[in-house]
Amino acid sequence: MAAKAPSPSQLDEIAALLPHDALSTDPSDLATYGRDWTKVFEPKPSAVVFPRTTEEVSRVLAYCNGHEIAVVTSGGRTGLAGGAVAAAGEVVLSLARMTRMHPVDVLGQTVRVQAGAITESVHQHCAEHGLTWPVDFASKGSSQVGGNIATNAGGVKVIRYGLTRQWVLGLQVVLANGEVLELNGALEKNNTGADLRQLFIGSEGTLGVVTEATLKLARVPQRLDVMLFAVDGLQGVLDLFAEARKGPFVLSAFEFFTDKCLARVQRHRTVRAPFDQENYTHYALIEAEGQGADDAELETWLGSLFERNVVLDGVMSQNSSQARSMWELREGISESLSATGLPHKNDISLPIAALSAFCEELDGVFASRYPGWEICLFGHIGDGNLHVNVMKPDAMSKADFLAQTSDADHAMFELVRKHAGSVSAEHGIGLLKKKYLGYTRSPAELATLRALKSALDPRGILNPGKILD
Ligand SMILES: Cc1cc2nc3c(=O)[nH]c(=O)nc-3n(C[C@H](O)[C@H](O)[C@H](O)COP(=O)(O)OP(=O)(O)OC[C@H]3O[C@@H](n4cnc5c(N)ncnc54)[C@H](O)[C@@H]3O)c2cc1C
Fold it and tell me: Are the CB atoms for 377 and 387 separated by under 8 Å?
C-alpha cells in the first residue's frame, strides 16, 4: 500500500511526540515549506514539523512508518528538481532548526554539524582557521548541508575539489523505521566492507534522513586570480579550456556563459558590461589558484592566448572586489533568468571528450525545434556540465511552452544518451526529471535502485514518488 497523508487525529499524535512549537499547519508555513526553487508544483503538505534533535526526527519517522504516512524531508528548498516538493498531503520534515555546528577540529581538518546548518554558515565557521568546506555555488546562503549531501551537490569548484560526496567523512542518518545509523565517524580510512554512507549521498531523501555530518575541510587557497575572456563560439570555450588545463596554476573553476545570459543578468542587476565591445557571444570565467610568486609565468601564458587568437578579449581581477564582480556575472544567471522570464531548465553532462560533437548536434535540435527562440546556455563546462535554459517567448502561453519544451527534451536526451552523458549533472532527479531517468540508467541499474529502496524503506514513506515511482 502507498504511504498516505495523515488524518487530523494522527497529526495530533505526531504533535504530542514533539515540543509544543514543533508542528505547524499555518497556511504560510505549508506554502513555504512545501516547495523548492522549481515553483512549478502546487505545495499541499498536511503539516510541517521542525525537530531540533536526531531523537525527535527518529520519533516522527517511527510513528509515520508505523502508520504509513508519507514524509518529505526539507532542507533549504533551493533544489531545482522538485525533490523537496510536498504536493500530496505529506508531512514535511524540516531541518531548519537543526543548525548546531561543533568547534572545528583543526588538526583533523573536520567539523561536525547538524544537517540544517546553512552551507555558507559552515564556510564562515571554518574561515577563521584558514579552512573551508569546498562545496560552493550561488545558493549557498540558503541551502543546507543536509540538502547538499542529499543531492550530492556540485557547483563552481568541482573541477578542483570534486563533488560533495568527496567531502563527507561521517554521516548520521535516521532510517524510515526511526533507527539511527552512525556511519564512518571521522575516519579517513575504514575498509570494512561496502561504504553505506555513500548510499545516502545523492539519494534525495528517499532512503533516510541525514541529521548530522562530519565534514572534511580543505585549506583556503592563499591566492585566487579570476579572469574573464570573450571567445569565438563554444569551440572557442573548449579551446580555451584545453589551454587552461595546461596553464601555470591549479585550475579552481572554469565556467562559461553566452551573451544572452549576460543580457538577462544586466536586465536584473546593476552590473557593468565586462568589455567595451559588446558583440561577443561567448564568455569563459577562469579562477586560478597560485602561490603568489608566479606572476611572470601567468603573464606569459596570458600573452600567448592573445598572440595565438585563442581569446578575443580578456581581463584579470586586480583585487577581491573585481573578482567578486566577475563572479557575479556568472553566479547571477540562474536568479536573473527566473526574475526576467520563465526558463525551461535542463542540467546535462557529457564526457569532456564528447562535448564538441554533442554541442554541434544540439545546435541542430535547437534550430529545428526552437527557431528564433532565446536559448540561454551556461554552466560548469570544465566538468562537462551544461545548463540549457529555453526562455518562454512572450507571446506564447505557459501551457504551449511546456508542451513544446517537453517534446524537445526527448530529442535532446536522445543525443545525451548517444554521447553517454547524463540527464542530470548535479540538480538531481526529484519529480522533474523522473521520466528521463532511463536515458542515463540501464534497466538493471533501475531494478537495483528499486531493490535498495524496498530494503531501506519497505513501506515507501520517504519522499514517495521522487526519483522512482
Ligand atoms: C541560484 C541557484 C544556483 C544553484 N547552483 C547549483 C550548483 O551550481 N550546483 C548544484 O549542485 N546545485 C545548484 N543549485 C541547486 C541547489 O542549491 C542544490 O541542489 C542544493 O544542494 C540543495 O540544498 P537544499 O538544502 O536547498 O535542499 P532542498 O532543496 O531542500 O532539498 C533537495 C533534496 O534533498 C532532500 N533533503 C534535504 N535535506 C535532507 C536531509 N537532511 N536528509 C535527507 N534528504 C534531504 C530533499 O528531500 C530533496 O529531495 C542551485 C540552486 C539555485 C537556486
Answer: yes
Q: Please tell me the total number of residues recorded for the chain in this structure.
A: 469
Residue 436 has a pLDDT of 95
Q: Choose the residue to mutate in 39, 94, 133, 143 for probing ligand 1, maximizing ligand atoms within 8 Å of C-beta.
A: 143
Which of 151, 171, 426 most suits a substitution to test ligand 1, by most atoms within 8 Å of the C-beta?
A: 151
Query: Could you tell me if the CB of 73 is within 6 A of ligand 1?
Result: yes
What letter represents residue 202's amino acid?
Answer: G
Is the full-model pTM beyond 0.70?
yes
Is the Cβ atom of 147 under 6 angstroms away from ligand 1?
yes
Q: Which of 369, 431, 372 is nearest to 403 (CA)?
A: 369
CA distance 389 to 370: 12
Ligand 1 center to 347 CA (angstroms): 14
Share of the chain above pLDDT 90, in %: 87
Rounded to the nearest 10 degrees, what angle do helices 259-268 and 320-331 cross at?
110
What are the domain boundaries of the chain? 8-96, 110-219, 223-334, 342-423
Class of the domain covering 223-334? alpha beta
